[in-house]
Write a structure and sequence with these properties.
The complex is a heterodimer of chains A (180) and B (109). Chain A is α+β, with helices and mostly antiparallel strands and 180 residues long. Chain A folds into two domains: 4-116, Beta Polymerase, domain 2 (2-Layer Sandwich), CATH 3.30.460.40; 119-179. Chain A has helices at 9-22, 32-38, 58-67, 118-132, 135-147, 152-161, 165-176; strands at 27-30, 47-52, 71-73, 76-78, 85-87, 94-95, 98-99, 103-108, 111-116. The termini of chain A are far apart. Chain B has 109 residues and is of the alpha+beta class. Chain B has a single domain (3-95), classed as Winged helix-like DNA-binding domain superfamily/Winged helix DNA-binding domain (Arc Repressor Mutant, subunit A). Chain B has helices at 3-6, 9-21, 26-32, 37-49, 73-85, 89-96; strands at 23-24, 53-58, 61-66. In chain B, β2 (53-58) and β3 form a beta hairpin. Chain B is globular. The chains are: A alpha+beta (180), B alpha+beta (109). The interface between A and B is small, with 12 and 8 residues.
C-alpha cells in the first residue's frame, strides 16, 4: 500500500473511507474534492468533504481517524505528511432540496471510493452558482462537464425543481458545448 | 416555543431572528434578546457547522443567514413561521418592523 504522503486525493479518500467502513462508518465524497477528481485536477482543492450521511458521532470518527494517523484541528482532520485536510460535513447527502439517489464507486489501489456522480457534482456546483452567483462554482461545473458525460436532462429537471430554470437555460451551453 | 426540539432557547432565538430579518450578526441578535453574546455566537457556530446557516464577512462583522442549500430549509422555515405566530405581538412586531431601507449618513431624524 502507498504511504499517505504519496496518495492522491482520490487514493486518500478511498483509504480513509475503507478504514472508516471497518468501523461501520459510511461517508461519501462530495464538494471540491469531487470536482478535482472529475476534472482531472484542472480544479485544485486541498480539502476532502466526506459527508457523514448517517450522522455518526464525532468521537467515533475521531477515534477511527486517529488510528490512521490523523489529528483533529477545529472541524478538520490533518495528517502530518499529507497536504490534504479532511472534513466530515453533516448529512443528509443532498443537492439542493433533493436527496442524492445514486453514488458512484471508484476503485483505487488504496480501497473503494464512494463519491457523488459527475452529474450530481455539476448540480452541486450549480447550486452554489444559482444561490450566490458564484462564477468560480460555474467554472467548476464546466470543468466536470468537459471531462465527463453528464445527464443534462436530469440537470434541467433538477434546476426546474429548484426554481432556477431561467438560470439553467442561460448557462446550459457552457455544460454541453464540448460534447456536440 | 421550540426549546424541547432545539435544545436551547438561544438556538431558537437565532433561527427566529434570521427568519424575520434574513440576516444578522451575533451582537445584534444578543442585544435584541438581551442575552449573552457568547451563547449566541456558540449557537451560530453550531448551526453553521450543521449546514443550516452560512456566513460572510462585511467589514469586520460576520453576517449570518440561512443556507439556501440546506435540504430541509423550506420545512424548517415553515416550522419557525408557525412558532413565530405564537410569539407575543410586541416581540413579533419588533422583529419584523425594523428599518431595512437605506438612510443617508447626515440625514436628520
Amino acid at each position: 500500500m502507498k504511504s499517505i504522503n504519496h496518495m492522491t486525493q482520490g487514493e486518500l479518500g478511498a483509504f480513509i473511507q475503507s478504514q472508516l467502513r471497518k468501523q461501520g462508518i459510511e461517508v461519501i465524497l462530495a464538494g471540491g474534492a469531487a470536482v478535482a477528481i472529475y476534472s482531472n485536477n484542472m480544479y485544485v482543492s486541498k480539502d476532502l468533504d466526506l459527508i457523514n450521511i448517517y450522522g455518526v458521532n464525532r468521537r467515533k470518527i475521531r477515534d477511527a481517524m486517529t488510528e490512521i494517523g490523523f489529528y483533529e484541528e477545529g472541524r478538520y482532520f490533518k495528517h502530518p505528511v499529507s497536504p490534504f485536510f479532511v472534513e466530515f460535513p453533516p448529512g443528509p447527502l443532498a443537492i439542493g432540496a433533493e436527496p442524492v439517489k445514486q453514488v458512484v464507486e471508484k476503485k483505487f489501489s488504496t480501497g473503494i471510493l464512494k463519491i457523488i456522480s459527475p452529474t450530481d457534482c455539476v448540480k452541486d456546483r450549480l447550486a452554489a452558482y444559482y444561490h450566490w452567483s458564484d462564477q468560480q462554482a460555474l467554472l467548476q461545473a464546466t470543468l466536470v462537464a468537459q471531462q465527463h458525460k453528464i445527464n443534462i436532462d436530469e440537470i434541467r429537471r433538477w434546476s426546474l425543481a429548484e426554481g432556477k430554470l431561467v438560470e439553467f437555460e442561460s448557462i446550459k451551453d457552457k455544460l454541453t458545448s464540448f460534447h456536440a | 416555543m421550540l426549546l424541547p426540539l432545539l435544545g436551547t432557547e438561544n438556538s431558537e432565538r437565532v433561527l427566529i431572528f434570521l427568519l424575520t430579518r434574513n440576516e444578522g450578526y451575533a451582537r445584534e441578535i444578543a442585544q435584541f434578546f438581551d442575552t449573552n453574546l457568547y451563547a449566541i455566537q456558540r449557537q451560530l457556530d453550531k448551526l453553521e457547522a450543521g449546514g443550516i446557516l452560512v456566513s460572510r464577512t462585511v467589514g469586520r462583522t460576520r453576517l449570518y443567514q440561512f443556507n439556501p442549500r440546506y435540504p430541509f430549509l423550506n420545512e424548517l422555515k415553515q416550522l419557525l413561521e408557525k412558532a413565530l405566530s405564537f410569539y407575543p405581538e410586541e416581540v413579533r412586531q419588533n422583529l419584523i418592523m425594523n428599518r431595512r431601507r437605506p438612510r443617508k449618513r447626515d440625514k436628520p431624524l
